Amino acid sequence: DGRLYVLVSRQQPGSFNEVYLAALAPETGKVFWSRHIASSSASAYQQAGDASGETVIPAGQRVIVTDGMGVIAAISSLDGSIEWARMFASDLQPVRGRRAMFAPVQQSDVSPPRHVAAVLCDAGLIVPVTWRQDDHGAMRVDPASGQVLNETLPAAGDNIMATASLAGDLLTLDAEQGLTRLDGRTLKVVWRQPVADVDVGAQLDAAGSLIVVATEKQLQLRDAATGEIKQTQPLASPARLHLTPGQLVLTQGETISSFMAWDLALQRLARQMQQQPHNPDPGLALARMGWNERKDDHMFAGLDHALDAANDAVLRDDDAVQQQVF
């Protein structure tokens, strides 16, 4: 809907945690509305861990939020009012009012925190169960009402580390069962492929005909139709993924990298060089691409653009651009 949704967690004096959701204009940062989602004591937060991870899912005129403190809620995207809210504990309890307080749960019922996001598919909202040692897997929730439709989804796996959706279908990455694609309406297995080294922190994303898996040691590009591996790349450190049609953004620590289909990247950089003749960045990016892909003509074209920008910077006495190109 053209808005940027930000989930904010802050600790109040006395070890009190609060979570807010805000809707902003991405161009200006103007806040349309903000809503207090939940509050809890630090002891409850530390014991309950991250429930199903912090998730913000725009869904038409509502936004589905799991706050990482045990609460799932549907917020109106129009005015920020809470349509419904439920609390993760031994079961899903309805939350009355606009605030949710949950008491500490028994330590024996809690497993170590895992960040596993909820995901929306054709069958509804799929919420991984990560907060109890004796009850893993996932449950299905009606996004319109918050009603629990299925307490368990055996086909999704018992030790889910990551989830994603693709064309309405559900994707799960499980420590034992590997990568599974389930039909979005029936939740029956379409295909299942083994994946090695799946542990806490594994990442999964999908777009178009591509599925990307990041394990502790490897980045895998897989065919969405079959789940088979198309390409792999070693990973030196844990990574987070963001995949859109034609582009993969990978963050590792303080480093962010972008991978894009060659034709699409070339088209975008050519347009940027034409529109920004005094900016060396598009030319330097094209030069790096040409070098990596052994395409000398494109490498030199990028360098020519960057050097032209540097020459222009000399005339304008712009030391910053000159140093950047150097």
Compact summary:
With 326 residues, the protein is α+β, with helices and mostly antiparallel strands. It is built from 5 helices and 23 strands.
Write a structural description.
This protein has 326 residues and is an alpha+beta fold. The protein has helices spanning 42-48, 262-275, 281-292, 296-316, 319-325, and strands at residues 4-12, 16-24, 31-41, 54-59, 62-67, 71-76, 82-88, 92-94, 119-121, 124-128, 138-141, 148-150, 160-166, 169-174, 178-182, 189-193, 203-207, 210-214, 218-223, 229-234, 240-244, 247-252, 255-260. The longest helix has 21 residues, at 296-316. The strands form six sheets. The protein has a five-stranded antiparallel beta sheet, with no helix packed on it. Strands 9-10-11-12 form a four-stranded antiparallel beta sheet, with no helix packed on it. It has a four-stranded antiparallel beta sheet with strand order 13-14-15-16, with no helix packed on it. It is built from five helices and 23 strands.
What is the strand and helix layout of this fold?
Layout: E1 4-12, E2 16-24, E3 31-41, H1 42-48, E4 54-59, E5 62-67, E6 71-76, E7 82-88, E8 92-94, E9 119-121, E10 124-128, E11 138-141, E12 148-150, E13 160-166, E14 169-174, E15 178-182, E16 189-193, E17 203-207, E18 210-214, E19 218-223, E20 229-234, E21 240-244, E22 247-252, E23 255-260, H2 262-275, H3 281-292, H4 296-316, H5 319-325
